[in-house]
UniProtKB/TrEMBL annotation:
Family: Belongs to the bacterial solute-binding protein 1 family.
Transmembrane segments: 33-49
InterPro entries from the UniProt entry: Bact_solute-bd_prot1 (IPR050490), SBP (IPR006059)
Protein name per its UniProtKB record: ABC transporter substrate-binding protein
Highest taxon above the source species: Bacteria
Length: 506
């Protein structure tokens, strides 16, 4: 299809609405989005049609430690009250920071008189609403939640926040401190063609987690390498399987992006990549086959329900005491220390596993960055079509300020965007066992600074990571096809992906 005769953004909005109404399948939605040049990070693609789990502690709202700083309230009165009676709108999926902001927005509204409407909807509806808004330059929404893979598409529709801060000194929040944002997150999530499209807002990322009591019981040192991890899970499974515990737990559901995430991490740790510099699929080369074969071995040392589990099922395996070692999303950790958790205080954070030397960026394609830790981030963007842009800008600064982002981290249990949040006394005080724990965040910061990976940046990737790759991997792991041969599985995937990339002219 050519978009010369049919407006691209109208097409995107129409397709997103069709999927939201379930008039088309997820597979068709992905294909049409790819045709329009719109992708999704693998993390976000897995949320299509679903809501993201929240494992923070909203019970902290209203406590003394969560009270707004008096100087912030005064600034909001001084600067924001001139916009009293204004209403601003923001649409987002249920990210932890959005959920928390929706709960504490009265702290902004009371001193400013600015009403804030937060629409929390599934990701495909976020895309439909944002696309329709920019296509017609409607200004219905003042702020946009943007998955990292949408940044290029919406770059021309947002205001550079750093530049606006300089251009509007009368509205500038004192001490906002742009250098306080994690540099890897700014560069990896928010920048496009030299422009800052939005402010980093969310960064779920992989880390290693282990049951210290189980490792101590069996005299196992915390694994640091893939080989050590493999030996450890085999030993634990052999010793504990009769008690209902396995060495690890996986998010290996056939056809779901979660399986794709596990697989890509295995490929990277084996020294491989998803694509080569020639833009050909490389999952079927020697490194790719080695990584997949090892994952098959891991599956033998995981609860059988791993083959039907996404991240939610994996978390439940950890929380119910069914596994002892997992490399997965950092957002799990606060839930494991929850008030009613059966494993409170037993799980510990650690650096991601080290495998073989990583494949150099010069040998991979489509902007892929092989590394030790998967991630799926987003940014908050200020609409250039907003009818209340200054009021929205005041809110955006408040929402992304040091104090609010730190409190959102404490309440929401997610990784901070700001460096100061990692060292804030309130965060350090919660680095103990218990609800709302932050005892994993020191490790998370190290991972962001050193081990953050990026999947291919291409519109077809969302489809591949939800269809061709995990569907065929599922057939291999469940014995439906390929006779247990990882090479046959990967060759099948390679043929399909290389043909699709060629057809798309990428």
């Amino acid at each position: 299809m050519s978009f010369k005769d049919y407006d691209k953004k109208t097409f995107i909005a129409d397709v997103a609405r069709d999927f939201a109404a379930r008039r088309i399948s997820k597979r068709d939605f992905m294909k049409k989005m790819a045709l329009a040049g719109v992708g999704f990070s693998a993390f976000s693609a897995g949320l299509l049609g679903n809501q993201r789990g929240f494992r923070g502690n909203l019970g902290l709202i209203g406590t003394e430690a969560m009270a707004q700083d008096a100087s912030t309230t005064q600034w909001l009165k001084d600067v924001g009250s001139k916009f009293k009676g204004t209403k601003i709108r923001y649409t987002s999926e249920a990210t932890p920071p959005t959920v928390v902001l929706d709960q504490i927005k009265k702290e902004f509204t009371e001193p400013t008189g600015i009403e804030v409407e937060v629409e929390i909807v599934p990701l495909e509806q976020v895309l439909a609403k944002a696309t329709q808004d920019v296509q017609g330059q409607l200004g219905t929404y003042d702020l946009y939640y943007l998955d990292q893979s949408w940044v290029a598409t919406f770059a021309q529709d947002t205001i550079d926040p750093m530049q606006y801060y300089k251009d509007k000194p009368d509205l500038a929040m004192p001490g906002f401190d742009w250098d306080d944002f994690s540099k890897p997150l700014v560069e990896g999530l928010a920048m496009y063609d030299g422009k800052m499209v939005g402010i980093p807002f969310d960064i779920p990322i992989f880390m290693l987690m282990y049951r210290k009591d189980i490792l101590e019981k069996h005299g196992i040192a915390v694994p640091t390498t893939v080989d050590e991890f493999t030996a450890a899970i085999k030993k634990i499974t052999e010793a504990e399987k009769a008690n209902g515990m396995y060495g690890t737990g996986l998010q290996a559901k056939s056809g779901h992006y979660s399986l794709n995430c596990d697989w890509t991490q295995m490929v990277w740790n084996a020294g491989g990549s998803i694509f080569g510099a020639d833009k050909k699929f490389k999952g079927n080369d020697a490194a790719g086959i080695e990584g997949l074969a090892l994952y098959q071995e891991w599956a033998k040392n995981a609860p059988p329900e791993s083959l039907n589990s996404t991240w939610d099922g994996q978390f439940q395996m950890m929380a119910s005491g069914q596994c002892a070692l997992v490399q997965s999303w950092d957002e799990f950790f606060p839930g494991l220390d929850g008030k009613d958790s059966k494993v409170q205080g037993l799980w510990m954070p650690a650096k991601p596993l080290i495998g073989k030397d990583l494949r150099p960026k010069s040998e991979v394609g489509f902007g892929e960055v092989p590394n030790r830790a998967h991630q799926g981030g987003s940014v908050l963007g200020l609409s250039k079509y907003s009818k209340n842009v200054d009021a929205a800008w005041v809110f955006m600064q408040w929402a992304c300020s040091k104090d609010v982002m730190t409190r959102c981290t404490l309440i929401g249990g997610f990784a901070p965007m700001r460096l100061s949040s990692f060292t804030d006394p309130r965060v350090n005080e919660k680095a103990v066992v218990g609800p709302g724990t932050t005892r994993h965040l020191e490790m998370v910061k190290w991972i962001i600074d050193n081990d953050m990976a990026s999947e291919p940046d291409m519109p077809l990737w969302a489809g591949f990571s939800n269809n061709e790759i995990p569907v065929n991997l599922g057939k291999l792991l469940t014995g439906q096809d390929f006779g247990g041969d990882p090479k046959k599985c990967m060759d099948t995937i390679a043929a399909a992906i290389d043909a699709a990339v060629a057809d798309a002219g990428l």
